[in-house]
Amino acid sequence: MSDIWQALIKDLWSYDYREIMEELLKLQLKNHGMIIAFRSYPSGHTQFAPHKDS
Q1: Number of alpha carbons in the 13 Å side-chain half-sphere of residue 4
Q2: CA atoms of 32 and 39, how far apart (whole Å)
Q3: How many C-alpha atoms does 54 have within 13 Å on its Cβ side?
Q4: Residue 18 in contact with residue 29, Cβ under 8 Å?
Q5: Which residues contact residue 21 at a Cβ distance below 8 angstroms, ignoring those fewer than 6 apart?
Q6: Which of 9, 10, 23, 37 is least enclosed by beta carbons within 10 angstroms?
Q7: How far apart are CA 14 and CA 27, in angstroms?
Q8: Considering the entire predicted model, what is its pTM?
Q9: Which of 14, 17, 16, 18 is nearest to 32 (CA)?
Q10: For 1-54, how does the pLDDT look when each residue is reduced to its tens digit (9 = 90+)?
Q11: Which residues lie below 8 Å from residue 48, measured CB to CB, with a gap of 6+?
């Protein structure tokens, strides 16, 4: 996994991130688990193509 993705995961697991989410959601998250999942799709994969408003 590239350094940029590893940095993102580290940030998402941080205390600061959870604290900001608690402020935004007006909830206490200390007793709640968190799952972070990333998937890699082959280049050109069309299932998640950009949505275009027309």
Answers
A1: 0
A2: 23
A3: 3
A4: yes
A5: 29
A6: 37
A7: 17
A8: 0.58
A9: 18
A10: 789 988 998 999 899 999 999 999 999 988 888 888 877 777 766 666 666 776
A11: 41
Structural domain spans, the chain? 1-39
Per DSSP, 47 falls in state T
Distance of CA 40 to the CA centre of its chain: 14
Please tell me the total number of residues recorded for the chain in this structure.
Answer: 54
Residue corresponding to tokens 């968190």: 34
Amino acid residing at 2: S
Q: How far is CA 50 from CA 23, 37, 44, 45, 53, in A?
A: 31, 21, 12, 11, 10
Structure tokens at 23: 């402020």
The phi and psi torsions of 28 (rounded to 5 degrees) equal -90, 125
